[in-house]
Amino acid sequence: MSKLLAQQEALETAKAFLILNLLDDSDEEDMEREEREEWEDLALINYAIAAGNRYMDRPINNRKQDDYFFKTKWYYYNNDEFIQQFRTTRYGFAVIMELIQWNTVFTNKSNLAQTHPAWQLAVALMRLGHYGSRASPQIIASDVGIGTGTVVDFTNRVVAALVSIAPDWIQWPNEDERVEHGQEMRLEGFPGCIGFIDGTTFPLAFRPSLEGGCYFDRKKR
User: According to the lineage, what is the superkingdom (predicted)?
Assistant: First the structure.
């Protein structure tokens, strides 16, 4: 089977699965519904991967160090395990990937293609979603089966892609919104206030060697 036919088959299979599930509105138990939704999210991710990937398989001399995580382990996470590992649902993962996968940071100037953005996102979320030594590139590399430097590269690319779309999601209120917020705040006893924000601290596992005291927060962490 040619590479093009293999890609088309993967696309048609994932598309058919999604369509059949959308058409099937029969009553079902909560457990069956949860399982079906889990497979729907997985099919959505697989469809996006197939649509954006020129090759469905690679020669053995062109594979990564270890394909077990990407080709086997990834598919066996249940919902709770997936959230624990990546700090988002399968659907949330698919949405993020859809937003960033065409960013130029995931393309090379050479003819050698990068690892698919979905796997780069998975590695980055594993690193960003864990704490202390569990978030170290060495541990992530060992778990996934790639090089330590590759973990860093994947993380940097994903962060760059997320930063590039941040203005689309994090915006200062426009003039009309400021007027509306100001009126609401005035009724609450805060004239002139157009809104408020809160911050989230991220405790560090170790005290930085340079000016470590500056990182001590109000919660004594």
Answer: Eukaryota
Query: What is the per-residue pLDDT across 52-65, written as a single tens digit (0 to 9) for each?
Result: 555 545 443 443 45
Domain ranges in the chain are 1-57, 65-89+96-171, 175-215
d(CA 215, CA 221): 8
Among 164, 147, 146, 38, residue whose Cα is nearest residue 101: 164
- What are the Cα distances from residue 199, in Å, to 81, 97, 111, 196? 28, 26, 43, 10
- Which 3 state secondary structure label does DSSP give 194? coil
- List, in order, residues 6 or more apart from 217 with CB less than 8 Å away: 201, 203
Q: Which amino acid is at 220?
A: K
Residue range 171-194: average pLDDT?
Answer: 88
CA distances for 65 relative to 70, 142, 172, angstroms: 11, 10, 45
Please give the single-letter amino acid code of residue 185: M
